[in-house]
Amino acid sequence: MIDFRYHVISIVAVFLALTVGIVLGSSFLDQPLLSQLGKEATKLNEQTDVLRTQVRQLQRDEQYRDLFVSEVTPTLVRDRLDGQTILVVSMPGVADTLIGGTITVLRQAGADIAGQLRMQESYGDPRRDAQLGELVARLAPSSLSLPAGSPAQRAGTVIAAATMTKNATSGPRPTDAVLTGFADAGFVEVTRKPTRRATLAVLLAAPADTDADTTSSRNVAGIALARALNSAGRGAVLGGPRETAVVGGIIAALRADNKLSREFSSIDMADTPPGQAGLVFALVAEASGNFGHYGLTSATDGPVANVFSPINP
User: Which is nearest to 155 in space by CA: 130, 127, 191?
Assistant: First the structure.
């Protein structure tokens, strides 16, 4: 990645070159000053070349790291999630490559993908709160206790109750009517229809939206959904790119909340081979009743969960 210093030096070099060009045609400046400006421009150009070389080296190093991790990951994660059924849910804006990579590594770990849901732009949109609230009131079972909060927060509880279980060997089938209702109303896309309830859940998130209000409401809805999935099953992990862990991102918002951050796990860098392997171990820890926050950016528990942790039966 080209850093800020590289950009500054490049810009300064351009302006100095322009300055030299201007003063060369001026009769008001003496030759020593022109010579000094020329030397400074040459020096900055040399520094720019050095930085370009460093960037190319870092890119090669990163490529090697990713290729190496991709090669060893199948062996590293093999059977770690054997017997676990996992629901993969993505928030709006999540790249297909992140979803596909996540499903691949989960299967390499022996997990059964119970189903796949894509939350739509309307989910967590305050302008659709009234419609979502009416839908929740219609779809929620009478026996289900709904939390206080926004319609999106209550909707998360209904979705989790219809798709998750704490028992890996038995339990009711997923409630098709609930998912169909949310799908027909345009709040959820059922990409892969759940065939059985999941014991674990992965919620994938995208970087923050440019609109602060949209980002805030979407973060609240996403965190509430992850919390509900975690509570209804044996654990949940919120994952996303590095940008989700910086100010404004959903993982940053989770980690900043002292209460919610102690309920379920998160991992940034989930769009990289190391992060995808780390996602598996975060799920293993969750299945054993341990939460943590992993990755590279503002991570409080290191880059990865304990890779030697067994899943408690």
Answer: 130
pLDDT value, residue 179: 95
Tracing tokens 């959820």 back to the chain, one arrives at 188
What pLDDT was estimated at residue 1?
47
Q: What range defines the domain where residue 57 resides? A: 4-72
Instruction: Judge whether 202 lies within some domain.
Output: yes
Angstrom distance (rounded) from CA 41 to CA 297: 37
Q: How many structural domains is the chain composed of?
A: 2
Specify whether 219 is located in the same domain as 280.
Answer: yes
* Spatial contact of 264 and 237, defined as CB atoms under 8 Å apart: yes
- Same domain flag for 165 and 276: yes
Which SS3 state, helix, strand or coil, does residue 266 take?
Answer: strand
Beta bridge partners of 87: 115, 201
What count of other Cβ atoms lies within 10 Å of the Cβ of residue 301? 18
What CA–CA distance (Å, rounded) separates 34 from 3?
30
In a domain, 308, yes or no: no
Rg (CA), the chain: 25
Single-letter amino acid, residue 21? G
Rounded CA separation 85/116 (Å) = 12
Amino acid 21: pLDDT: 56
**CB neighbourhood size of 246 (10 A):** 15
Q: What CATH number does residue 159 fall under?
A: 3.40.50
Is residue 267 within 8 Å of 312, Cβ to Cβ? no
Dig out the tokens for 236 from the structure.
């949940």
Does the pTM surpass 0.70? The reply is yes
Phi, psi of 238 (to 5 degrees): -95, 120
Does 196 lie in the same domain as 119? yes
Nearest to 237 by CA among 279, 197, 192: 279
Quick check: 216 and 256 in contact, CB under 8 A?
no
Nearest CA to 238 out of 195, 193, 286, 175 is that of 286
